Amino acid sequence: MPSRHYDPSAIEDIKILKARYFRYLDTKQWDKFADLFTADAVGVWDGFEEGGSRFEGGALIADTIRRKCADALTVHHGHMPEIQLTGATSARGVWAMYDYVKMPEVTFEGHGHYHEDYVLTNDGWKIHRLRLTRLSQTIIEGSGASMLEK
After folding, report:
1. Residue 94 is inside which H or E element, if any?
2. CB 68, CB 147: distance < 8 Å
3. Which of 18, 108, 126, 148 gives the lowest tally of CB atoms within 10 Å of its CB?
4. 19 vs 87: CA distance, rounded Å
5. What is the DSSP string of 117-142?
6. How do beta strands 124-142 and 53-56 pair?
7. CATH class of the domain defined by 8-149
8. Are 12 and 83 in contact (CB under 8 A)?
9. pTM for the full model?
10. Which of 10, 38, 13, 34 lies closest to 24 in space, CA to CA?
11. Which run of H or of E encompasses 56?
């Protein structure tokens, strides 16, 4: 369904925001990674454990991902964005995703979607709400139980 708001430069800026999310995560640039979220951001991850995980606050989201991934080799891909501007300073997006995560105790790969809300701040577009839904997650080696302990 077409949006009443259309600004190609805003859509491109949101694509760059998400590209930075993946790059900063995979290259462990944690200070820059934390700056991608609003202070009151909400992050929800489905698929790691029954009921999923929910984190409130941009700093907590970034710190949780840092703790889980600091010692891991990670490769994240985001594809086929569906971005809709919902207002002059708000937008919504869905991204198909693939990730490969090699931790000391487990290696897995997964497929799914990021469902996100964005807001335009004085510092540019930020992630305000993030929900990762997994369609598949395959343990390549090790046990997935230790993923949850970090």
Report:
1. strand 90-102
2. yes
3. 148
4. 22
5. EEEEETTEEEEEEEEEEEEEEEEEEE
6. unpaired
7. alpha beta
8. no
9. 0.89
10. 34
11. strand 53-56
What strands, in cross-sheet order, belong to the sheet with 90-102? 53-56, 37-45, 124-142, 106-121, 90-102, 73-87
pLDDT in tens, 24-55: 999 999 999 999 999 999 999 886 555 678 99
Residue 80 tokens, joined: 């086929």
Rounded-to-integer distance, Cα 49 and Cα 144, Å? 10
- Give residue for tokens 């859509």: 11
Q: What is the pLDDT of residue 1?
A: 47
Can you tell me the distance from the alpha carbon of 80 to that of 98, in angstroms, rounded to the nearest whole number?
12
Residue 25: strand pairing partners: none
Token pair for residue 46? 């489905």
Query: Nearest Cα to 25, choosing from 83, 60, 72, 94?
Result: 72
Strands 37-45 and 124-142: parallel
Tokens of 5: 């708001």
Within 8 A by CB and 6+ apart from 141, the residues are 106, 107
